[in-house]
Write a structure and sequence with these properties.
489 residues; mainly alpha; 20 helices; 0% strand; globular
Length: 489
């Protein structure tokens, strides 16, 4: 875990910097510079394009994680794996383009009544999805080289700063809505161009595929794996974006905007998991290739403890500050308070079970994960259809959180049954106890008229009590040596 910890810390710093920028953007800048319908337009376009982008690359991200270790050879330019990888999104773009425009009229009819503005920009969807899919492939290749830091900088910081600048330009009426949307998509294109330059600078890959080496690995096996994981990837991303897309169908783009702002807080909880998975996907894949079960077990066990601990602190902080936080936004967004709380609980389900996805999908039991994802995809659709018309945006949050809880519980059972790994121990129960104690005590903290002061006060008390209990219960003794006034002891 040494190299993982070091790179994980760097990634976490960049990721949280990006999240702070993204948090300020989505929570404060966008609601004040865009009206709820315009904000909803950008969010539903991102959601729909991201969903389509999981089909476009035909599973190339997991193909890279699974098979790159068998191609790795810098002297031979990794046997042309880079060229092989790019074939996946190219073929996928052609097939998806045919399907999207074959069913264009039917799709538009589903949204024209509640989300007219989205249908007017429907033609942006496919190019945007193609760009996102290439970014996914390039990021996966960079991660396979264990170079994730600059990728995070491009994706998490630079693109968000550019989007904020674009918001200001639009707010000042220097561009109209159509020009704004073109520039919005162009930001993601710039990311793809930057990643290509970066990859050629650090690796100088070859586009020429080593056909002999490919045959020795098994081209059919790779393609079959990629197609199987296209279904898995589509189902996985659906769990993150399906609620946004279905709100646009049943309610309105204004509700999409309100939901997106509130639900974004759940992503803040999941940041440590996302940051760690960028590294562990390839570390675990390499460990499976080397039959190093002990390393996998160590990564799994420690990820559960650390992520549960960090996620619990963030969860308590958000839930106890959510009312004050949303009071800083325009009045329309304040009805998203319950959505934020429900979404954060769902986010905690995801982070508290560690890097279980990496373990299942890079193992020889990956089919179980694919079947499970498809089941969850169907379940999420059913739950959204049942809950959104009845409970509105709160129904969408319930459907997503419930799906996340079921999904992670079943992943836990798969790993337990097939690999005999059970990562929860006494420290897990201690962490849950800490979360309950801190929430109960801090729930009764007084609020101040100035909401900024109130949030800073509550957050400070929450952190002090949380860290104090963590130290007292000896949950992470390996980090005690880094505490200045304890180090000498």
């Amino acid at each position: 875990m040494g190299s993982i910890k070091k790179q994980g810390i760097k990634n976490a710093i960049i990721t949280y910097s990006g999240v702070m920028i993204g948090f300020a953007s989505l929570m404060f800048i966008q609601p004040n510079l865009l009206n709820p319908e315009e904000l909803g337009l950008t969010r539903i376009l991102i959601a729909a394009a991201s969903l389509l982008a999981t089909i476009l690359p035909m599973g190339v991200t997991v193909v890279t994680a699974k098979f790159f270790p068998y191609f790795r050879n810098k002297e031979k330019k990794h046997h042309g794996f880079f060229g092989l990888m790019l074939l996946f999104p190219i073929v996928g773009a052609i097939l998806c383009g045919i399907l999207v425009y074959a069913f264009k009229d039917s799709i538009i009819q589903q949204y024209i009544q509640q989300s007219l503005l989205f249908t007017q920009f429907f033609d942006f969807l496919l190019p945007f999805a193609i760009i996102i899919s290439f970014n996914m492939a390039l990021n996966a290749y960079s991660a396979s080289l264990f170079k994730t830091t600059l990728t995070l900088l491009f994706e998490g910081v630079i693109t968000r700063i550019l989007f904020i600048l674009l918001l200001v330009i639009y707010y000042l009426h220097w561009v109209d809505l159509v020009q704004f949307m073109y520039l919005f998509v162009a930001i993601y294109l710039l990311q793809a161009i930057a990643m290509i330059i970066y990859i050629y600078a650090i690796d100088k890959p070859s586009l020429k595929i080593d056909s002999g080496h490919l045959r020795s690995i098994g081209a059919g096996k790779i393609i079959k794996f990629g197609l199987l994981f296209t279904l898995a990837g589509f189902s996985s991303i659906s769990l993150k974006h399906l609620d946004t897309i279905m709100i646009g169908k049943y309610l309105s783009l204004e509700n999409v905007g309100i939901f997106s702002v509130a639900a974004y807080l759940a992503l803040v909880i999941e940041i440590p998991l996302t940051s760690l998975e960028r590294i562990t996907n390839f570390k675990v894949s390499q460990a499976w290739a080397n039959k190093d079960i002990e390393s996998i077990k160590s990564i799994y066990y420690q990820s559960v403890k650390y992520l549960m601990l960090i996620g619990g602190l963030i969860l308590v902080g958000i839930v106890l500050n959510i009312h004050d936080l949303l009071s800083l936004l325009p009045a329309a967004y304040q009805k998203g308070e319950s959505v934020a709380i429900i979404a954060c609980i769902g986010g905690f389900f995801n982070i508290a079970t560690g890097v279980n996805t990496s373990i299942i999908f890079t193992s020889d039991k990956y089919k179980y994960g694919t079947y499970l994802l498809f089941f969850l995809f169907v379940l999420a659709i059913v739950l959204n259809i049942l809950f959104i018309p009845r409970y509105g945006i709160e129904g969408a949050a319930i459907a997503t959180a419930l799906s996340a809880g079921i999904y992670n519980f079943l992943k836990y059972l798969i790993i337990l049954k097939n690999f005999k790994m059970q990562p929860f121990d006494g420290s897990s129960f201690k962490i849950i106890l800490i979360i309950l104690i801190v929430f109960t005590v801090c729930y009764f903290l007084p609020s101040f008229e100035n909401v900024i002061v109130s949030m800073l006060f509550k957050s400070g008390i929450i952190t002090i009590i949380y860290l104090g209990l963590t130290y007292s219960l000896n949950i992470v003794p390996e980090f005690h040596k880094y505490i200045p006034f304890i180090k000498s002891k």
